[in-house]
Amino acid sequence: MSWIHSVLFLFLVFRWCIAGESSSPEVTDDGAPMEISEREALYSTIQGFLGDSWNGSDLYPDPCGWTPIQGVSCDLYDDLWYVTELTLGLVHENSLACAAKDWISLGSNLESLEFRSNPGLIGELPETFGSLTNLKSLVVLENGFNGKLPTSLCNLSSLKRFVLAGNLFTGTIPDCFNGFKDLLILDLSRNSFSGTLPSTIGEMVSLLKLDLSNNQLEGKLPQGISFLKNLTLLDVRNNRISGGFSQNVEKIRSLTDLVLSGNPMDIDDMMGIKWENMGSLVVLDLSKMGLRGDIPYGLTKLKRLRFLGLNDNELTGTVPSKELETLPCLGALYIHGNNLTGELRFSTKFYEKMGTRFKASKNPNLCQYDIVSESRSYVPPLGLKPCSKMKKTEGGLVILQTLRNLKKEESSSSMSLMVTRRVLSNGLTWDLLLELSLIVLLI
Predict the structure, then answer these.
(1) Domain ranges of the chain
(2) What one-character-per-residue DSSP string does 87-121 give?
(3) Which CATH number is 395-440 given?
(4) Distance CA 2, CA 142 (A)
(5) Fewer CB within 10 Å: N-end or C-end of the chain?
(6) pLDDT, tens digit, 9 for 90 and up, residues 381-426
């Protein structure tokens, strides 16, 4: 019977430490070198996923020896077999709830537990998961699990990796991270967690990666997040977080990836960040946040920056083209969907390097400085007109205005104003050139 498929992997890793035990381990009556409790726990786990019809004791009396089970790997230690890896294929039942099974029997030795890519696994996580206190890695990725997280997960203080991404979990995130001193990766993304972030999140002093993206979290980032001095990635995109950045995130000098897009940020909070102090940043995404005002000049000081997303905001003013072009690592720049004005002064070489990774369209009053290039790799930015063809439009009247011949004299000042009007009416076009000389005497 084959039940191994490449779609799902339930990965269990055991590390058995039997040194110092005074009694010999009990082995099976048929002479197979495996403890009875070990074999029963293995059978119970498999049966919990494949159903009661699976009879391991009859089919595989020696699962690591002369009757091996497909998907089970073992190591020999002190002349006894111990399970090191268990790989289960796709669960064909479409509504199989995750029951308690025999997790408690495995709890004293289990170090890694993974459920991956199986929407057929549904229901809440069992409370008994909290008994797996030796777990170093818990990965529940892209399944159908739902409901609130059991508070017993707070017992898993030995975790180094904690991933619950891509499920249907709801409720608040438990406020019990004060004991997770060794945790390196916390990924709770792509669920439906709500409420504010727990205050103890800043006590995970070893944390390298924090991904809370695509949830319904709200409020401000807790002040304690500034204590995560080893954090390299912070991703909170697509939540409802409203503040706590300028006072906290700016202090995390180790950050390389900062993704804040899609949050209704307090504008004063965001624009108050001194970006030049975050010189380690490689990826910075501030898109879809309602940002206003000029592009922060501090961004032009981030010499390691490779990706900068400022699109779909309400930014105004001119683009610091020359300063941005001097960033040696910049490979993607998105400023489209704003109210930026003036001329883009990027060079041909810059556009050749960026290719399609540069977007500046949907800025009505932004134009591209005229570039003459014979290079085949040069593609002018889409959605931008050359500045020579830009016109200021007001209703049905387009007016191009230029000031010329500004002269100053000791007793008077004069100003020549040339106005070119193009009037569009009834499908006909007339060009009228009026030259007005205005002399204003100042006494």
Answers:
(1) 274-390, 395-440
(2) -------TTEE---TTHHHHTTTEEEEEEEEEEEE
(3) 2.30.18
(4) 24
(5) C
(6) 888 888 887 654 433 333 333 333 333 333 334 333 333 333 333 3
